[in-house]
């Protein structure tokens, strides 16, 4: 690590008094507990980034859709593009169709992340391949808000094959699962559309979970932990 990288990692976050007050008032996360799935606030998140490097790439666009008490509402959504003064167009941004003009007109990073976390509220986050979104959000909150991410994440890319094992061999990507469930995918590859697509899949998964007797956050998470262990055992030859 060179001195410039060290400085960038350790330089203090400077927030306005208003932004600091908003950060300090952010709601606590929803624990993975006995809360019923149809009573919990579940926020499906998609982050479009400048690339896949967790250390250096940045969040460029945020899309989030809430399923609150089992209801997916078009009015309960969050979307914004993030202003990045040093950003240059890349293959990733061309794929996501984010123009330099949209970046220049975007919301400052601290304001965008505060808006997301205020929207999310007392929730559990879900995403497709959630590990990437979780790590990028954790880094962004730490760097731009000096805030530690405490919200739990569940991975729709794991829940789908767990609940629909009959489709697991044919489906791996978000597009695959959309096609399997006969959902429209014409708007894919921007944050808001990807979050909406993932939320529609999640509703189908939650319906299957309920039919199988899985009714709470803890029950769903416990099933997921067991499913991972069984998969690991199979892949290890046991």
TrEMBL record:
It comes from the Bacteria. Residues 41-211 form the Exonuclease domain. GO terms for biological process: DNA metabolic process. GO terms for cellular component: cytosol. CDD domains: DEDDh. One of its GO terms (molecular function) is 3'-5' exonuclease activity. Keywords: Exonuclease, Hydrolase, Nuclease. PANTHER family: DNA POLYMERASE III SUBUNIT EPSILON (PTHR30231), PROTEIN NEN2 (PTHR30231:SF4). This is DNA polymerase-3 subunit epsilon. It comes from Halopseudomonas litoralis. The lineage of its organism: Bacteria, Pseudomonadati, Pseudomonadota, Gammaproteobacteria, Pseudomonadales.
């Amino acid at each position: 690590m060179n001195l410039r990288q060290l400085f960038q990692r350790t330089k203090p976050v400077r927030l306005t008094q208003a932004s600091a007050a908003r950060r300090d008032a952010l709601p606590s996360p929803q624990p993975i507990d006995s809360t019923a799935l149809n009573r919990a606030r579940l926020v499906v998140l998609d982050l479009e980034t400048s690339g896949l490097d967790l250390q250096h790439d940045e969040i460029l666009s945020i899309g989030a859709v809430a399923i609150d008490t089992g209801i997916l509402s078009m009015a309960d959504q969050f979307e914004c593009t993030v202003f990045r003064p040093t950003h240059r167009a890349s293959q990733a941004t061309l794929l996501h169709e984010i123009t330099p003009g949209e970046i220049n007109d975007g919301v400052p990073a601290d304001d965008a992340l505060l808006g997301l976390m205020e929207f999310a509220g007392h929730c559990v986050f879900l995403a497709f391949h959630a590990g990437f979104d979780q790590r990028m959000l954790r880094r962004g909150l730490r760097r731009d808000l000096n805030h530690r991410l405490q919200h739990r994440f569940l991975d729709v890319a794991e829940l789908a094959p767990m609940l629909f094992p009959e489709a697991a061999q044919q489906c791996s990507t978000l597009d695959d699962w959309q096609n399997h469930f006969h959902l429209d995918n014409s708007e894919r590859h921007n944050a808001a559309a990807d979050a909406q697509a993932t939320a529609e899949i999640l509703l189908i998964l939650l319906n299957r979970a309920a039919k199988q007797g899985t009714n709470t956050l803890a029950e769903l998470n416990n099933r997921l932990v067991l499913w991972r262990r069984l998969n690991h055992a199979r892949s290890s030859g046991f």
